[in-house]
Each structure stands twice: as structure tokens, then as C-alpha cells.
UniProtKB/TrEMBL annotation:
Residues of the active site: D35, D175
Requisite cofactors: Co(2+); a divalent metal cation; Zn(2+); Fe(2+)
Role this protein plays: Catalyzes the reversible epimerization of D-ribulose 5-phosphate to D-xylulose 5-phosphate.
Gene this protein is translated from: rpe
Name under which the protein is recorded: Ribulose-phosphate 3-epimerase
Pathway where this protein functions: Carbohydrate degradation
Amino acid sequence: MNHLVAPSLLSADFLHLEKDIEMLNRSEADWIHLDVMDGVFVPNISFGFPILNLLKEKTAKPLDVHLMIVQPEKFVNEVAEMGAEYMNVHYEACPHLHRVVHAIKDRGMKAGVTLNPHTPVSLLEEIISDLDMVLLMSVNPGFGGQRFIEHSVEKVAALKQLIARKGAHALIEVDGGVNLETGKRLVDAGADVLVAGNFVFSSEDPVETIHQLKML
């Protein structure tokens, strides 16, 4: 029960966003997960910095910003200025990943690297010790409410082994298709952070749903 829960704001009701933020503030959610999409790296557009900058005024929860965009290195300063604790960039979007990771750290944030479902964890061999977190996508990124990719459980276990073998300390975060059943298997495999969007925000009692995810 030491794992964290990070509800994804992508599934919130944007006509009543402040109400959903207040719900998250009351809940046992550890972080708020923010998916920024550009319609280029992924086939969808979400929200940008005007929305994100309002969040730091409305919540004390740590902000976990996941940039599903091309050239995420261009926005390190903006993410830092909005008060993010974690900045996640995609391995697939960063040809100079080491440089980007250290630019994130230099701005006082914790650095996360995200892997798409087809990207093997072995590609992090040379940088895992520099990372604070690895985010494994358990669906193809771009849309909420997708079906969980079963291989993700094995991928969590493989990443856990890599972290242990290298003496690293990165957290393992998983995003996509997380519910009570998949979440339990992911935690048992070694996941430290569960991102849940549709499962939380479409439930009759989101606060209780977050509590149930915390109790896995």
C-alpha cells in the first residue's frame, strides 16, 4: 500500500474543472497527472500552459506533467515556472535524452522518461541512474479510456529488474487502462505510481475510487 495514485486530469470535466480539482484536493490522490498533447507526437490535442498555470493556484498536490509532444526540451522553463514537481518526456521524442533530462533537473524538477508500449525498457540501460521516474504507457498514448495492454505487467517487472541491477532509484509509473484489477497486478509487479483517468472520473464516487486504488 506504499504506491502512489495520480489521477489524470485529461478525463476531468472541463466545464466544471474547478469542482474536479477540489475533489482531488479532498481525496487521497498523491499527485495530479497532466497530459499535454500537441496533435503531432500523438493524434490528439489536450490543454496548454494557460490551463496548467491556473492549477498551481488551486491545488497543493504535486503536479506530474507528461509532455506528449515533439521537442519537449523547448518547454522546460515553462513547466518549471508552473510549479511542476515531475516533468516527463518521451524517449521517442528526444534524440538527445541525456541533455533534456539534465535540463529538467537544472530547473529544480524531477526528471521522468516515458516509454510507448512498443519501446523496450532495455533502451534505458545507459540513463536509468539519472532518472527520478520512468512512465510506462500501458495504452497507446493520445486518448483516454483505452484497453489495457497486457504485456505492460511483464514490462514493469523487467524495468524493476533493470533498476535493481543498475542500483538506480527511479520510480515506476504506469498510465493507461488502470483499474482495480490491472492496478493490483501492476503494483504486485513493482509499480510505484498508478495513473488513472477515466476509471476515476467516470465513477459514481471518485474519492472512494481513489481510496480503493490506494488500498491495492
